[in-house]
Amino acid sequence: MPTARLGITKTPPRMQLGDLTITLLDGGGLSLDGGAMFGIIPKPLWSRLVAVDEGNRIPLATTCLLVETAGKRVLVETGTGVASKFDEKERGFFNLNEHWILPSLNAIGLDRESIDLVVLTHLHFDHAGGGTMPDGKGGFEPTFPRAKYIVQRGEWDDAVSGHAVMTGTYRKENLAPLEAAGVLSFIENGDADILPGIRARLLPGHTRHQQGIFIEGGGRRAFLPADLMPTAAHAGLRYNMAYDLLPYENMVNKQHVLEQAAAENWMLLLGQDPTNAAWTVKDQGKGRFALQTADVT
């Protein structure tokens, strides 16, 4: 069954890893330029792998992971955020839909007070946008007021200084309210345990301080590589984005992740694939890897 871009549903896909539960939630959909999403790869090659519209855009999901473990609820990624954050031109350019993470949580009986931790792989708007919301007074506030928001220190520093190749991807309304509310918790630029069974791994490439997230339990391991490899169509080592700050590092780190995932039977959770979020990997040798959809039941 499809596991991405589900919209509001009372029965989202769930995975059980020992005592740990992962629920796949829809954080909103968007579209981005296909050429930018595949960098140096010519359109005749990348367009075989993905749908492309008349504006040369490809559809993307923003799958968010609700991880429940040790009596805590952890939200990994927050999607694009409510559509009212964007002006009419932006909504049209990015083909944004009205859906965002809070209605997905509400549909399974959780409110904004239910989340204990928010983990962000990086702070681009399609990953961090759902972390803040309008406060009803003309400003913005943290969507999850009880939660600590966890991010790499270097990623935060780059975000507030605008260190990016895509203008406006680090948006003030997604950042300033978190700092003002005192909800930020920084990882000091490296790998770190977040909770038992949840671990961050530094993955420079797309940004200088992006992090991937391991989720482990019951002898099984899932890994969210974030924009190291946003969709299954990006499994080719050179199929990287023009948005990547460090394209060579991204390619090298991707190879290491895919080799480990194949050798150790990880499940890869590709948060922006528009059809499926969960995949397994087979190493075909000579730097080639085959991805197959994984059973999440």
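the 2nd protein, sequnce then structure:
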Amino acid sequence: MKLQTADITFVLIQFVLFFLFILDNSLLQLLLPSIVIKAGIMMAITGLITIGIALLQLNKNLSPFPSPKSGSQLIQSGLYNYIRHPIYTGILLLFTGYSFYISSGYKLLITIGLLVLFIFKSRYEEKRLTQTFKEYSNYKKSTGRFLPKINR
């Protein structure tokens, strides 16, 4: 599928937010209870594992752009059996967890910005996937966007 301006725009914004996240910024330090800090470690580890598994499952279909690659297949197994965008979920868990771990309000704000971006990016991506894969509409009904559906 041919890349659109929106594809490039979404990826550029995502990389800008990633860059802003890695900047060492002590603005907005939070006073969090130790249980939240410990939960942050677990969230970050869960996020890393989720990203790794989702990348392996996506395999050759992986692209940083929301539009599907030409000749790609719709993956509906593994994590993708439950969540349509597990890489985004993993990134959000990793960034949220790390933000809690270091008690950074600044990094948490960047993570919220990523969440907003991922909502818009995934909506656009799903329009493109629906155009490419006729079975995507049914797949979408049975899976959650970032979290598993409770009533499948």
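The chain is about 60% helix and 0% strand. Helices lie at 5-22, 34-58, 86-101, 105-132, 136-142.
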